[in-house]
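[Q] Does anyone have a clean structure-token version of this?
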Amino acid sequence: MTVAPADAGVATPLRAELRGISKRFGATQALADVSLDLVPGEIHALVGENGAGKSTLVKILAGVHQPDSGTILLDGRPVEIAGPAEARSLGIAVVHQEPRLFPDLTVAENVFIGHAPAGRLGSIDWGATRRAAEALFAELDVRFDVNAPVRGLSMADQQLIEIAKSLSVEARVLILDEPTASLSAHEVERLFAIVRRLRARGVAILFVSHRLDEVFALCDRATVFRDGRHVVTMPTSALSTADLVRHMVGRAVSLFPKVETPIGDVLLEVEGLSRAGSFRDVSFTVRSGEIVGFAGLVGAGRTEVARVLFGIDRRDAGEIRLGGTSVDFTSPSAAMTAGIAYVPEDRHQDGLVLDFTIAQNVTLPILPRLFPRLLVRAATERSLAAEQTREFQVRMTGVDQLVGALSGGNQQKVVLAKWLASKPRVLILDEPTRGIDIGAKVEVHRIISELAASGLGIVLISSDLPEVLAMSDRILVMHEGRIAAEIDHAGATEERVMYAATGSVDD
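[A] Here you go.
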């Protein structure tokens, strides 16, 4: 069987064919009769909400799971992928969101682990291993000290090592599973350049991502899964963002449902705020009903400003005024008592206690106020949590469910419910939609808009430029620890924001 790639009129033999693949886990039908084609020299996107079946399909191709029914063909030949080692031997490689490397081994050892060049008497030829690793990185046009240990390398560098591993086994099918979730804009561009070079070499690439702008920037075709079923496969050139979202959620929705809200009085004033080594001379205001977006590259100082505002770190200079009164928070609890809430970037590490129930997480910031005698009444705790989670439409079995069992989007809603229970006046949101699917993003954007409409002042820190542009009334762009530009909603474009974020002059 052959298929014509999106940018060609000539039919191309298929590298991989999945036909009628089904997989059930207990009562859950993860995949139901889905089909997918991968073509040499093509980047094929796989998109869908959490629970759509993307991860299950990737694990079947990687040999982690075996399908209950259906057929897999590689270069027209039926195969059974009995395990990860067999997948690699068939030329299928997976680059996961979190690289799976051995931190105490060198770069070269990680690249060739399990199949290093052999020397005399079957021993490993370490010189040949290092030279082969250097040759692979030269093919990728990146420089690496192959003798250095992996520990301490950036996430982007670790993913490049994973890609080099795939080349070392002469991968014919490369699966990239959410590869950009932890990368800066510059690192994403470097990764995309390498992926395009692999496409030019004839590798068939499956790209799994929640970031629709990346799908359109990189991919030739896109397949949408919904509820374990195949919905559509089309060239990306024939799709719009609205089309993809509609196919993913099953209805037409607005990705950025922002409500125009009257802007009220100044709630937060920041003047000349500085912290050595992080940022300097930062000044801005936030008004009631206003969403102030913070844009900038990774390391520009946005999160560091938020940490000072919430009392996690101390300032070296400057003044913070809340409701016209000068404040100096020595702890997050002091900031929270004054009316500031902070939804952190890493919800797992800093935002939730995954082994606690939903009710315990929601009431955690307000326990002293809710139970001043420190005698926790479970019924009161559950009642308050039920009210908060109902407002945010959290999908759960009940407030006694462990928060770690929720999807990423529902965990993020619990974080929002948790901090809104403290009745803040100013809400700081740091990357509020990172790592959640498109349906959950729509819900979080709706919540943010409604919170602003209720009179909260909101600081929105995001690396997702379309999100910042669509949701913000004003955008402050940071570059190397300083505010490089202030752009109102009407005049904001991706180009203007990126000019300022990179320290360029916008002519």
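[Q] Thanks! Anything notable?
[A] Confidence is low (pLDDT under 50) at residues 4-10.
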